[in-house]
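FORM 7B: Structural annotation worksheet

SECTION A. Query
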Amino acid sequence: MAAISAEMIKTADGLHLFNRSTPMESNQHEFHELFEQLGLPSSEADIRAFISDHRPLPGDVKVTEAPFWTDAQASLLKELLLQDADWAVVVDHLNVALH
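SECTION B. Predicted structure
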């Protein structure tokens, strides 16, 4: 699996988010692309607002089982984790940001 270049940033309110990463190879996906796949607004400001509004997830709640996802979004996240290693990296970044 190719490496993904991502870094954590700290916002004024203490949130840790992953910057949009630069793909090291063409098959790597960027963080904002996951939001697009989920049918969510995907600008940096929109992503920050989403994470701010939905964190912290309790430690025992899987990102795929968070109560704010629609059934379709939850299914997509599960599928991406199970079937696509490239997308799984980005879903894991979302998991970290929400916990």
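SECTION C. Observations
The CA atoms of residues 8 and 99 lie 14 Å apart. Residues 1-26 have pLDDT under 50 and may be disordered.

SECTION D. Sign-off
Analyst initials: ____
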